[in-house]
C-alpha cells in the first residue's frame, strides 16, 4: 500500500508542478506532510541536500523519501511517479513543438505562468529562510548558527556584486554555505 501512496503522491506532484523543483516544493511539502512521511525540519534538510547533489532536486527528493519509507521498491515507486509524467509530456511537446511554438495563445499562457512561478519560488524560499530563523514558526528553536550562516551568505551574495562588478556564482554560494555549515556545526 505504501508503494501505491508513494507512486501516486509523486505522480500528482509531477503532474501539477510548474517552474521546476522550486515551484514544486509547496506541492512536495503538502504531499509529504499529509502522509506523515517527514517532519518539516527533515524535509528542509533534504531539500538542501538535494540541491547540492547531482541531478534534479525533485528526483533526488522522491528517491530519498521513497527509500526512507519503503526501501528500494519505495524509491523506485516514488521516482517513477515523478518521471513518468515528465517523460510523456516531453514526448508530446517534442512531437507538437513545430505547431505550438508559434501559437499566440500558447505563448500567452506561458507568459502568464511565469510570474506565478516566480511568486511560488520566492514564497518557498522566504518560508524556508524565515522558518529556519524564527522560533516556533516551524516548531524548532531559534538557532544562532543558522542566523549567522544566513547573514554571512546574504552579505556575500549582495556585497560581492559592487566589489567584483558581477554576481557571485550560485555554485560558489553552495560551496561557501557547505564550508560554513561544516565549520559552524
Characterization of the model:
The chain is mainly α. It has 2 domains: 130 residues, no CATH class; 43 residues, no CATH class. The chain has 7 helices and no strands. α1 packs across α4. The protein is globular and about 50 Å long. The mean pLDDT is 84.
Overall form? globular
Count of individual helical segments: 7
Tell me the span between the first and last alpha carbons.
38 Å
**Percent of residues in helical segments?**
over 70%
What does the average pLDDT come to?
84
| Total separate domains | 2
Percentage of residues in DSSP E strands: under 5%
Q: Give the beta-strand count.
A: 0
Based on secondary structure, the structural category is mainly alpha
The arrangement of helices and strands along the chain is: HHHHHHH
Low confidence ranges: none
Keyphrases for this structure?
mainly alpha; 7 helices; 185 residues
Amino acid at each position: 500500500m505504501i508503494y501505491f501512496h508513494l507512486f501516486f503522491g509523486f505522480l500528482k506532484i509531477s503532474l501539477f508542478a510548474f517552474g521546476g523543483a522550486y515551484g514544486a516544493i509547496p506541492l512536495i511539502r503538502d504531499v509529504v506532510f499529509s502522509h506523515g512521511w517527514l517532519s518539516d525540519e527533515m524535509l528542509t534538510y533534504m531539500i538542501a541536500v538535494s540541491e547540492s547533489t547531482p541531478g534534479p532536486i525533485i528526483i533526488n527528493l522522491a528517491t530519498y523519501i521513497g527509500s526512507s519509507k519503503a526501501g528500494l521498491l519505495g524509491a523506485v515507486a516514488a521516482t517513477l511517479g515523478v518521471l513518468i509524467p515528465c517523460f510523456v509530456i516531453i514526448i508530446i511537446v517534442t512531437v507538437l513543438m513545430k505547431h505550438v511554438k508559434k501559437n499566440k495563445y500558447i505563448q500567452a499562457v506561458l507568459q502568464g505562468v511565469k510570474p506565478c512561478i516566480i511568486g511560488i519560488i520566492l514564497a518557498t524560499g522566504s518560508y524556508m529562510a524565515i522558518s529556519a530563523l524564527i522560533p516556533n514558526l516551524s516548531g524548532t528553536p531559534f538557532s544562532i548558527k543558522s542566523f549567522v550562516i544566513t547573514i554571512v551568505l546574504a552579505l556575500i551574495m549582495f556585497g560581492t556584486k559592487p566589489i567584483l562588478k558581477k554576481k557571485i556564482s550560485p555554485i560558489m554560494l553552495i560551496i561557501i554555505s557547505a564550508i560554513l555549515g561544516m565549520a559552524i556545526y
